[in-house]
Design the sequence.
């Protein structure tokens, strides 16, 4: 009888040891799985933040190009004011999608003295901003404004088709970086 009791006891101990080993392996596996899930969540969160900032950047650029091509700016007659105009917003359109040559010319003149104020009124204060107006099918700018972003800077470009007030088709290219 004594031998059968010790056999039972050994089997119980063996089962207890197996249960402890199973628990340790399972706990290690679950811990590893949790760490992997946290790492993946951190990567997804980082990519979401980056995508969100890119969308915000693109929306700001779109609004600036809309203001330039669709509105005369505020005040609407800023191009006629003597001296340096005070801008609420910058627009160079005489009517939607029709660019005033007088405003485009005046903006080009103001580039040397008021670059910072103009890009701030465009909502692009923290970035280098460049605008060019070229005839459709040509590469030489008729009017230009701003500082082009450097080659090492990531930049975004919006191009809009419009007309000059003399009837010629042009491309307005706005680059920000």
Sequence:
């Amino acid at each position: 009888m004594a031998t059968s009791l010790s056999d039972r006891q050994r089997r119980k101990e063996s089962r207890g040891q197996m249960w402890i080993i199973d628990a340790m392996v399972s706990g290690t596996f679950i811990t590893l799985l949790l760490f992997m899930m946290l790492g993946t969540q951190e990567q997804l969160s980082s990519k979401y933040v980056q995508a969100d900032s890119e969308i915000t950047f693109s929306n700001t650029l779109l609004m600036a190009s809309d203001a330039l091509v669709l509105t005369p700016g505020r005040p609407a007659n800023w191009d006629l004011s003597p001296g340096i105009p005070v801008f609420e917003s910058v627009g160079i359109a005489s009517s939607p999608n029709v660019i005033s040559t007088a405003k485009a010319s005046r903006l080009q003149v103001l580039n040397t003295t008021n670059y910072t104020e103009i890009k701030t009124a465009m909502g692009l204060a923290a970035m280098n901003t460049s605008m060019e107006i070229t005839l459709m099918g040509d590469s030489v700018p008729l009017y230009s404004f701003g500082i082009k972003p450097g080659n090492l800077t990531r930049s975004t470009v919006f191009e809009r088709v419009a007309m000059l007030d003399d009837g010629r088709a042009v491309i307005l290219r706005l680059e920000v970086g």
Summary: The radius of gyration is 33 Å.
